[in-house]
Amino acid sequence: MTPQSDEDEVWRQIVASFNDTAERDSADQPWPDSENLPAEPTRRVVKPSEERLDDDPPGDVRTHDPDDDPDDEPDADDADPDDEGHFEPPPPPPLPKLDLPTKVAWVALFGGPAYLLVAALAGWHMEGWALFTAVAAFIGGFVALVVRMGDGPPNDSGWDDGAVV
Questions:
Q1: What's the pLDDT tens digit per position in 50-77?
Q2: For bias kind Basic and acidic residues, which ranges apply (predicted)?
Q3: Between 105 and which of 53, 55, 69, 141 could a Cys-Cys bridge form, CB atoms 3.0 to 4.6 Å apart?
């Protein structure tokens, strides 16, 4: 047989078995059976009672296995494996303080449309000067925030701006 006829035969077998269902057994698992995790016993959280011991801190919450004797104290060496990879991020830094012009610009940006929305929903009759003031406040607040944004590098960046596109 030629190599071409072998390839054709293999191709015909692949096409013939296209719609066949695959068999599922333990050999198809992507990892060995020894790496499967055993089922853990269920645990429940027991809140401290009013008559707690003096050595317990006020916010102490203990986990209790229902199979254990209630008189047994949990060992300090027993660590919960679920908390092993738990990450608690640090608190975020405080927001920057805004100066008065920036606060006024934000109030104008949202205040103008808010007034127009409330007036339209309430059915108030709006004079021409009130409409003009609300629209001008919105546009002025937007322009003020864009102008104050700045497009230059920070003052502490040094003499080298890096790659400037």
A1: 555 555 555 555 555 555 555 555 554 5
A2: 41-51
A3: 141
